[in-house]
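re the bet — no i am not wrong, look at it urself. input seq straight from the record:
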Amino acid sequence: MRFFVPPESIRGTQVYFSPEQSRQIARVLRLERGAAVFVFDNSGWVYTVRLEQVSSRAAWGTIVGREKGQADPPFHITLYQSLVKGERMDWVLQKGTEVGISEFIPIITARTVVRRREKRARWKRILIEATEQCGRSRVPTLQDVQMFPHILQDLPTYDKVFLAHTGEDIPRLREVLREQGGPPKQVALLIGPEGGFTQEEVEAAHGHTATIVHLGPRILRAETAGVIAAAILMHYWGDLA
């Protein structure tokens, strides 16, 4: 079993679990003193921890080994994801983490439908749980929701920027990647809402270094496109399959 703990929960060789984690260890997993669990703290290390005290109120253990995380992505993908309705954003965060996205920036575009306030605490918890499940040692970063015009100035700071769109004259992502070299350090993916980006938004992003691409002949849902695009990048540059 893997647990994420903030760095301040590791004091020397001792690791202290939160009350929620303590309840999970004691009541759900029914682990006992002497059992081993794995812990990570966003440092890139994964620690083997022997439980010294187990109760539903407080659990702690001793670090008995450590190794570098083996499942972290080799390059940084930032997903600028237009807000999607209902629980679909939860899915984007969960599956995007599994694929290897390192940073999520929710955005509001001209066609974004905003029906409720974002659930930042919930989203952060989903990222932590997905990281624990998939074996990564660093939890992806979650930024505040931003308006589309405000992100344009940040695009030139990336090595590569791809905006997913549709159109007869737009090249496929795989065709564009054939012209690329080795994996960059920083990649940005821009994914629009249902109905896509407006032409004005596409042109504005293109003017700020974005390469406009499409992902194939089928129409993808807004919550699916970013995960698929990230998987394509990870596969092309050697991290998946």
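see?? The CA atoms of residues 191 and 225 lie 7 Å apart. told u. also Residues 76-236 form a domain with the Alpha/beta knot fold (CATH 3.40.1280.10). so pay up
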